[in-house]
Specification:
Layout: H1 12-33, H2 37-40, H3 43-55, H4 57-62, H5 64-77, H6 82-95, H7 98-118, H8 126-207, H9 213-242, H10 258-267, E1 272-278, H11 286-306, E2 312-318, E3 323-330, H12 345-355, E4 359-364, E5 370-377
Parallel strand pairs: 1-2
Antiparallel strand pairs: 2-3, 3-5, 4-5
């Protein structure tokens, strides 16, 4: 690519000032040659070349290479074009690749050598004039390329900073999204369990209106308490999704809460055969125990929805150094679910178990019914 580094365009007044300063240098060059009778004869040529070279300065700003070459040709005719030609070479070195800058500088060097041959400077041998010419143009190339490299480095660092800032922002947003998803999943599990219990009690009131006043009052009290709890949990979900509040460390269930979960479902009328074959449950990692709790909770919730009134078998077994196995089975569905579901509970549960390093399997049994089985790692 020809364009490597294009500096920002300076303000117009800066261009006018620079052109004026170069014009002053051109005029000083012409005036400085007047005392020499040999150079005085080139006065008209010097003035013409000086005017044309100053007029080409704006062209150098827009098209550096053609402008610098044109100024080099004028410099071969008269020293009046030397200041503009120097500016043209420097501009190319600042904006173009090294190869282009060297070629333009070589053209400027040759042009000044031609100038030195037919309009020599008295008191300065041509050899030293050539050396000075070469050194000046080499310095211009080095200055321009060094400045260009510095600008590219600064821009590269700025781009890296912008990318790092954008990446940091993306990571923060992703972390917040993951955290909100995690919290919403927790709330889904809790709400689904709570609402299924309410549906069970409400169904009992609907189908057993002849129950004793004590049982009716107890069921109504459970429904009232459950509604308040469900509303509180729903409010937390809404706050999380609105970013108006942070999930403030709601007590997370543990493996030791499984018994209470089973008892709660039994009180709602579900017959549960609970078989706990876990050796040394205190050594179970908290995260694994929490995942096991959610598996059983989701299984009981689905059983109440799709097989209400039928017994559920819950088996939990395992030991340290092996795996923790959870299995829930229940009879076939009654047809119409007791409470509508979103259909995403098992999807979210599968994701939760996989994140814990385990596996989840669920599906209908050959003889009828439904089985939910999870296997979780239990390091020693």
């Amino acid at each position: 690519m020809e364009e490597l580094c294009v500096p920002r365009r300076p303000a117009k007044w800066v261009g006018f000032v620079a052109t004026g300063a170069i014009g002053v240098l051109v005029a000083m060059t012409i005036v400085g040659r007047l005392p020499d009778p040999e150079h005085r004869q080139f006065l008209l040529l010097d003035v013409a070349v000086g005017l044309v070279s100053v007029a080409l300065i704006p062209v150098v700003g827009r098209r550096p290479v053609p402008g610098a070459i044109a100024l080099a040709v004028l410099a071969a005719l008269s020293p009046a074009a030397t200041p503009p030609s120097t500016v043209g070479t420097l501009t190319v070195a600042l904006r173009r690749p090294l190869r282009t800058a060297i070629l333009v500088a070589l053209a400027g060097t040759v042009a000044h050598l031609i100038q030195g041959l037919w309009q020599p400077i008295h008191g300065l041998p041509f050899f030293w004039f050539a050396v000075l010419d070469l050194v000046v143009h080499a310095a211009l190339v080095g200055w321009g390329q060094g400045t260009q490299a510095r600008q590219q480095l600064v821009e590269s660092l700025r781009e890296r900073a912008r990318r790092a800032e954008a990446e940091q922002g993306r990571r923060v947003a992703e972390a917040r999204s993951n955290e909100r998803t995690k919290m919403a999943r927790e709330m889904h599990d809790v709400l689904a369990h709570r609402l299924s219990l309410l549906a069970t009690y409400a169904g009992a009131l609907e189908y057993r209106p002849d129950s004793s006043p004590e049982k009716l009052a107890k069921a109504a009290g459970v429904i009232r308490t459950g509604v308040h709890q469900a509303l509180d949990e729903l409010r937390e979900v809404i706050n999380v999704l609105r970013d108006e509040a942070v999930y403030e460390g709601r007590p997370q269930p543990t493996f030791g809460d499984l018994r209470a979960l089973v008892d709660e479902s039994r009180e709602a009328g579900t017959t549960i055969a609970y078989d706990d074959q876990v050796a040394d449950p205190m050594s179970l990692p908290p995260a694994t125990g929490r995942t096991a709790y959610r598996v059983v909770q989701e299984g009981l919730t689905n059983a109440r929805k799709h097989a209400a009134g039928h017994p559920v078998t819950v088996l939990v077994a395992g030991q340290a150094g092996d795996r923790l196995r959870i299995e829930l089975t229940n009879p076939a569905s009654n047809g119409t679910p007791l409470a509508p579901g979103s259909g995403t509970g098992l999807v979210g549960l599968t994701e939760r178990v996989q994140l814990a390093g385990g596996t989840l399997d669920h599906g209908p049994l050959p003889g009828g019914g439904f089985r939910l089985e999870a296997s979780l790692p239990w390091p020693s």
